[in-house]
Amino acid sequence: MAVRQSRTRTGRPARVAAVLAAAAFLAACPGVAVGDPVPPAPAPPAPAPAVPAPAPAAAPAFGAYLDYGPRGVARMAELSQWLGDAELRVGHTYLPGDRWSNIEGAPGFLDVWADWRTRKADRMLVLNVPMMERNEEGVDDDEVRELLRRGAAGHFDHHFRALAERLVELNVPDTVLVLGWEMNGTTYTHRCGPDPEAWKTYWNRIVTAMRSVPGQKFRFDFTPSRGRDAVPWTQCYPGDDTVDIIGMDSYDQPRGMAFDEQVKEPFGLQAHVDFAKAHGKPLSYPEWGLFRNGDNAEYMRRMLAWMDEHRPVYNTLTDYCPHGVWQCDDNPRSTAVYRSVLFGRTDEPAPTAPEPTVPATPTAPPVPAVPPTAPRPQAGCSPLELGDWVEHWLGGKLCMRLDWYSRSR
């Protein structure tokens, strides 16, 4: 508690006592009169109306990857219920990367996801699209380089045109397409490292082919993994004309790396935010979750706070072991954090307490203008000079009639 500070005392009490004594004496004398009263001071102006606070922004859209097929759709309702009926606006699945026919969107595979998406206007379907078949078969760099160059020359355009036509036919032309994700690593055949220039040209050909399909409204999400990995992901960026969203897959790895380091490392979380801002693009986090550091509640808390702060277009937790919290029993502490933060969350802004109503200040009546000169004393009355402060306190000048003695005899 702060110590109360006493104000510096002034000579005002003694001055008031002197004025009261003078007033009593003058009032006892016959013939003493007070001049015309001074007009009252004008009322202070009414306070300016309060500027209303800006409405809080809606919470970022979120969801989780639960399964690539129909079970993934069914489990979304169960996850929502577990989160206190939180609104999961984002459905996330992956096209199989085993062969071209599946990358084109095999009949029946996407139907259940399209049905979920079209049931509510504000839902979002996120679809990871491989850029190559045999995408997880350990193809060596020399073959990847040759495949990228063939793609850059247009050999695979027709596969992606077929996918675009399929999505438009299913009435999901606004799907977010995470094309060639984690291209800066070594896992996938569609990786960038063996020939970044050919990779960028190939990306641009795919986007051009898919945008040529009538009715499409696709958004293309460029999503590397966090950090440098095999190649700096900025070397793979294909240009602003063919990228709508800049995403990042960010798992809790490597072992022993604190969240602050994940933010500050080269090509890390802060570099991602800065790069997207410099290119005028929104953010996303298509994949994130626990990994090398086990049940790390601090990572879970900090990553959720990071996304609330930077407001991506969407985020989707990878919810299977070792990454997840709902379908994985290995991470109870992180599960508690995830559930407590997102429990009951909807797309609506959080309600705010109403501001107290301030009563309107009554409008003061018009004040007559102050005469430009001091009031004239009454005839036969001699004004007494008591000083400005006394006259202000008494409300005007005092005067004494000069014939008071003769009239009293």
Structure description:
- There is one protein chain.
- The protein has 409 residues and is α/β, with parallel strands linked by helices.
- It has helices at residues 12-28, 70-82, 100-103, 111-118, 141-152, 157-169, 196-211, 259-264, 269-278, 297-310, 332-342, 388-394, 404-407; strands spanning 32-34, 61-65, 90-94, 124-129, 176-179, 219-222, 245-247, 250-251, 283-289, 314-318, 381-384, 398-401.
- Helix content is 33%, strand content 13%.
- It has an eight-stranded parallel β-barrel with strand order 2-3-4-5-6-7-9-10, surrounded by four helices. Strands 1-12-11 form a three-stranded antiparallel beta sheet, with helices on one face.
- β2, α2 (70-82) and β3 form a beta-alpha-beta unit.
- α5 (141-152) crosses α7, α6 packs parallel to α7 and α10 packs parallel to α11 (332-342).
- The longest helix has 17 residues, at 12-28.
List the helices and strands and how they pair.
Layout: H1 12-28, E1 32-34, E2 61-65, H2 70-82, E3 90-94, H3 100-103, H4 111-118, E4 124-129, H5 141-152, H6 157-169, E5 176-179, H7 196-211, E6 219-222, E7 245-247, E8 250-251, H8 259-264, H9 269-278, E9 283-289, H10 297-310, E10 314-318, H11 332-342, E11 381-384, H12 388-394, E12 398-401, H13 404-407
Parallel strand pairs: 2-3, 2-10, 3-4, 4-5, 5-6, 6-7, 7-9, 8-9, 9-10
Antiparallel strand pairs: 1-12, 11-12
Helix pairs in contact: 5-7, 6-7, 10-11
